[in-house]
């Protein structure tokens, strides 16, 4: 498999094709799984990605970069390597990268999750010889609730806060997480406002055809304003900042997979924690490996050694690898 995929200081490299998958530094040719900046690095000369991610990537990358986009399931040959994208379910445009060369198939999942998400296509299993999987939440303690149950909990919290005459501020990553949160909100409860970074992501989602409830950019409100009963979707870095003062009396909440661990909410200094993650939980990770049924599994990012050891105990050829470096702009799970 060394001709098909190798680990290098710059990330996963396909020697036969002469390209990197989610490179860690600028390279000539990058195949990217999705538009988060720890996967789609700024400064590459050429980007190849799944078609639904076009607006997001063009929003975040230099105008000098060259882009090529493929529909899910379509393929392109790069120096004899057949490359195709398949839904990953992580966020809009997220994809698993399938590489085929001389009868061998490798799949790089990028970030992914199983189950429904109203803002993107659901993950699909892809049979392969080598599977590269993330393990952000690769411990048995991480188990997600059904999508609708979590959405109902958030809406119930909003109603209760509205009845108290306070403003809700819900924190989530600007692109991906925030749009998923928005899709689950009940607009009949009150008005929905957004942080500027969130609204920018909303624009790209709407251009791609994703339906979201009506939102108002916080920065468009001038002078004194009554924020009571409103829902504000903001980025985590806004918590405790001067920007928050305008909302008056608020209740705050964080939406993240890390909220599954006792004490995480306290460390974030928020009133509520909702377990919402765009990554696979423990049972879904194991299920994904079983469905793809690879000969070899490379486990990266997160609890990679723990997951690899568990898979080995299950009789699989598995190993932990180091394929990516986190950035300050990464999502919060």
TrEMBL record:
It comes from the Bacteria. It is an enzyme of class 3 (hydrolase). Keywords: Hydrolase. The keyword Hydrolase applies. Its EC number is 3.1.-.-. SUPFAM superfamilies: Metallo-hydrolase/oxidoreductase. Signal peptide: none annotated. PANTHER family: BLL1145 PROTEIN, CLEAVAGE AND POLYADENYLATION SPECIFICITY FACTOR FAMILY MEMBER. This is Ribonuclease.
């Amino acid at each position: 498999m060394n001709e098909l995929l190798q680990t290098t200081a710059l990330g996963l490299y396909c020697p036969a094709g002469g390209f990197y998958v989610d490179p860690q530094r600028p390279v000539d040719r990058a195949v990217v799984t999705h538009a988060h900046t720890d996967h789609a690095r700024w400064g590459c000369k050429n980007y190849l990605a799944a078609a639904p991610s076009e607006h997001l990537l063009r929003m975040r990358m230099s105008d000098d970069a060259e882009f090529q986009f493929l529909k899910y399931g379509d393929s392109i040959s790069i120096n004899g390597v057949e490359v195709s994208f398949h839904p990953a379910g992580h966020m809009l445009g997220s994809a698993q990268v399938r590489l085929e060369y001389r009868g061998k198939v490798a799949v790089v999942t990028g970030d992914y999750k199983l189950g429904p998400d109203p803002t993107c296509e659901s993950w699909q299993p892809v049979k392969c010889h080598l599977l590269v999987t993330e393990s952000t939440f690769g411990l048995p303690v991480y188990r997600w609730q059904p999508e609708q149950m979590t959405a109902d909990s958030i809406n119930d919290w909003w109603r209760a806060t509205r009845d108290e005459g306070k403003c809700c501020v819900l924190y989530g990553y600007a692109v991906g997480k925030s749009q998923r949160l928005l899709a689950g909100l009940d607009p009949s409860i009150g008005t929905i406002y957004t942080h500027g970074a969130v609204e920018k992501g909303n624009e790209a989602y709407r251009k791609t055809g994703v339906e979201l409830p009506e939102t108002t950019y916080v920065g468009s409100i001038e002078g004194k304003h009554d924020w009571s009963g409103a829902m504000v979707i903001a980025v985590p870095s806004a918590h405790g900042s001067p920007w928050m003062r305008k909302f008056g009396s608020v209740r705050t909440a964080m939406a993240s997979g890390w909220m599954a661990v006792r004490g995480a909410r306290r460390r974030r200094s928020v009133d509520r924690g909702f377990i919402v993650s765009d990554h696979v939980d423990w049972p879904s990770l194991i299920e994904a490996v079983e469905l793809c049924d690879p000969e070899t599994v490379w486990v990266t990012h997160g609890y990679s050694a723990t997951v690899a050891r568990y898979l080995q105990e299950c009789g699989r050829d598995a190993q932990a690898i180091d394929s990516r470096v986190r950035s300050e702009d990464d999502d919060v799970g």
